[in-house]
Amino acid sequence: MKDSSYTHKCMNVLGNELRMNIIAALQKKEQTVQELVDKLDREQSAISHALQHLRECSFVDYKQKGKEREYYLKSKVFSQKGKTMIELLAEHAETYCKGKH
């Protein structure tokens, strides 16, 4: 593992139920903050804060659609099978996170 501290940070980000629920929702389709608020029945600020953490670790990103941002899963770590989470996060860090700390 080339950057175990970043991998550790990403694992901590994933250790949150709301963030994992957002990931599960985004596995189905791209969604706006308001769609996630409605689906997960949480405050807008909590969703936005969770998305910020997920973006910092390059798990999600967004594209601008008019006045709204539509969030999607950036990382392929959640669609791969047959590897441990540690291996997947190490690959994720190698692909998306070079130079981030």
CATH first level: Mainly Alpha
Indicate how many domains the architecture comprises: 1
Radius of gyration, taken over Cα atoms and rounded to an integer in Å = 14 Å
- Can you identify the CATH superfamily? Winged helix-like DNA-binding domain superfamily/Winged helix DNA-binding domain
Strand order of the largest sheet: 1-3-2
| Shape label | globular
Report on the biggest sheet: 3 strands, antiparallel
What percent of the residues sit in helical stretches (DSSP H or I)? 55-70%
Average pLDDT for all residues: 83
| Poorly predicted segments | none
Number of strands: 3
The CATH topology is Arc Repressor Mutant, subunit A
Which CATH architecture would you pick? Orthogonal Bundle
Structure, described:
The chain has 101 residues and is α+β, with helices and mostly antiparallel strands. 55% of the residues lie in helices and 14% in strands. It has 5 helices and 3 strands, in the order ααβααββα. It has helices at residues 4-14, 17-28, 33-40, 44-56, 85-96, and strands at residues 31-32, 60-65, 68-73. Helix 1 (4-14) packs across helix 5 (85-96). The longest helix is centred in the middle third of the chain and has 13 residues, at 44-56.
